[in-house]
Structure formats: structure tokens, C-alpha cells
User: What shape does this take?
Amino acid sequence: MTAAATAPVQYVVMGGGGSSPMAPPAPYATVDLYDLFAAGEDLLLGGEVKGLMFSLNCDQVFLERQAPLLERFVRSGGRVLVNGHVVRPFLPGLAPWRAVDHHGPSDLRVTPVTPHPVWEGVDFHELLYRTGVPGTPTGEELTRVGVAGFYGRGHHARVPEGGTVVNGIGPYRLPLDIVYPLGDGQVMAHAGNDLHGFSDPDRTTRTLGPRLLAWLEGTL
Amino acid sequence: MPTLGFLHGGAFHQLATLADPAVRVWRPREIYLPEADAADFEDLDTLIVSDRLHPGLLARTAPLLLRVAERGGTVVVLGENDVEGWLPGMRALRPAETNFWWWRTGGDNGVRRAAEGHEAWDHLTERAVRWHYHGLLEPPAGATVLACTDLEREGDPATRQVLLYEDRVSTPGRLIVTTMDPVHHHGSRFMPGATQLLYGLLRWTGTNTRLPPAAAQQPPMRGRTDGSHGGG
Assistant: This one.
């Protein structure tokens, strides 16, 4: 493992390949999923790594097999962000993803349900829509040119006991972003594209990325 | 019925695609990339190489999966994969702007169909190739260009800005290569055109076990315009 691998927050990806036009630079280490677990217990349980954020593309067949070690990491105080759709629940409390039958942006609207410091100060309209047009359209202009769905198109089938729905999707505010305790640690599950990718320096979402990293480090 | 393999890496969109009843009717052999070995590819007529696979594992497995084409079968290589260094014939894969929003702002994302009359178009709708793409291909001489883009500035769209081609010259079989990533978007329930591309590719390559002779290659129809398909 490289020195970067002992950074407190690790962004776990599949080889680092693939383009991601929305991902801003961020102060975390990027590590390959297989390399992370090949490094063994000492890395994950040694105390230097505080938080893991799993990219949506991660191999869930492999993660399911690594579940015992991952659970020990969280129970011993680690924090984990699971991005994407859960198909193979690889931690206690995770549940399979369920699609929303969406026919327009209002079916995908993101609504805060329980205030959480990671999303503090964020205009949820700016989470719903993405656009690549020049400038920083907001309000009605963003509604006109934006594409909804990047943030989420479905929800977690269940919220575990003791868990909190942070943000809901659609008119019934189904559990899109959830957080729950597991041992001495916590699990956050975001049923959409990688959460830190929605942090934009020109928008109210600018604090989302830094706050997420602070939460993963255990300082927020 | 042809024997079809589907190479995946355990990602949610790949697992969701494999669970889709409309995909299951093709009875795909599920080949999990970290554990793939020679026997998995031995008797396949068609192999779908899912998009967004782990680049190191994919490169390591390439010699095994290419045997499908070397034996006369079809290998479909989907987009957002690191294919440079192992994919026969391909001259270049260059980056391009990925425009997810064209249908909200302008109505034309530059995609042009080519080789009208090719059997691919019996199975692929216009919409199947018009949503977005993740790069520009430069296919080998003799390959059939099926879709290219007028946007970008890398050169002749029909040779240097290609989004989908069929190559029956680089192996005894057939390589179908694209920079579109239909498994990710179908499995994510995001982008209906992607679903049409995935289903169309399965029907095209899952139906024809015996390749027709690689006879006269049609020149791509350049500059064809079609405004009939906007929308997301």
C-alpha cells in the first residue's frame, strides 16, 4: 500500500478507471477495492483509516464476501458511506434498492426529512438537477435546462431499527439517504450516484463535499 | 439457440441487468470477472463484455475472452472500459465531452447512423444509439462504422469520431465495439435509449449464430440528419 492509503478517508473505487465529469478534486485517498482488502485487517482495523466511501460501481459480490471484516471496521468506530444501489446487502442494516416509477422530475424530487449536518445549507433544488450549460443556472432556469435523476432514482427497501431517513425521494419521501449506527460506528447509505460528486463550488452544494469528508473522519 | 456469455464485475447495474427477465430470456452465462477462466469462454457464440469493468482484471482476462472471436464468434465490447493495449484492430480511443443534457438544451447530440441497410439496424432503433457516449473510436480499415458523431474536432467523423462499429477483419469472428455504456444506464434505470441499445444488441448478436460473409463493406452515410428522436 502507498502512503496515501493511510489517509483517514479512503474513496474506494474499481481500479480508478472511467470518466467522471462531475467529480471535483477532493482531499481523500483513492484506493482500489481489491487492494484495500488485500492489505488485510491491519489497515482497516489499525485505527488510521476512519472512513470509507464506496463508489457506486464497486463489486458487491466481493463486498458480500468481505462483509465480516467490513462490519468489524464499522463496529470498532469506523464510518462508511455506501453509494449506489444495494443489490447484495454487505453490511447489517443495508437493504436492497427499489426503483421509483418515475415519469418526471417531481417523482424524483429530493426532500429533507431529518436535518443532518452533512447537508446543512444545501438548496435541494440544486441536488435534483444537473446541467452542463455554461454558467450556473438556478431556480426556474435550472428547472428548464437541468436533468433530474443523477442524485437518485429509487430508495432503500427498508430502514434498519435505530436508523434515520435523512432525505426522501418523490412525493412519499421514500428513504433515499439514510444513516444508522452499527456498534461504535455509523453507516450512511446514499441510493444514487457518488454523493461527493454533487458538491459544486459555485452552488449551495459547495459545503456538501467537505462536510461529508469531515463526517467520515468522525469530526462532524 | 446461441450460447451467450455476459462478463460482469459484480457492480449493481450489472447484477440488476442480469436479473432483468428481458435479459434472462437470452439465458446468459454469468461470468464473474475476478474468477473468469478459459473454460468460461470455451463454447460461447457471443460474449457481451459489460461496460465499466475493472481495467486491470479486464486486461488480464483479455486473452481468454478474445478466443471467442478467434474461434469465429462475436465479442461485444461496451463503453467506459479501458480497451487500449488489448483490443485487436482498434487504432485509437480518444476522450470526448459527455453530454447528458443535449435533449434539454439543443435537440441534437451529433449522432449520425451509418451503413444503412446493415443487419444491425434490423435490431437497433435510432434511439438506441442516440443518448450519450464516452469517447471516440478510430476503427481499423475494413470495419463497418454504424454510428459516429458530428460534434468534436478529432477529424473525419466516419473514421475518427466513431461511436459504434463492427469489425470482421481483425479476427476470424466479429468484434462489436462502442463507447456507449448501456449496462450501467439500463441497470441504473436511467436513460431509456440505453435500454434499447442493450436489448437491441442482445437480439442482434443473440439471434445470428452464423455470421454472414464479410462481403462488400458499405461506406458510412455521412452527414445523415435525423431530428426525430429527442427526449431523455
Q: What stands out?
A: The CA atoms of residues 110 and 125 of chain B lie 16 Å apart. Residues 4-207 of chain B form a domain with the Rossmann fold fold (CATH 3.40.50.880). Chain B has nine helices and ten strands. The interface with chain A takes residues 9-13, 15-16, 32, 34, 52-57, 80-82, 95, 97-101, 104-105, 134-135, 188-190, 232 of chain B (CB under 8 Å).
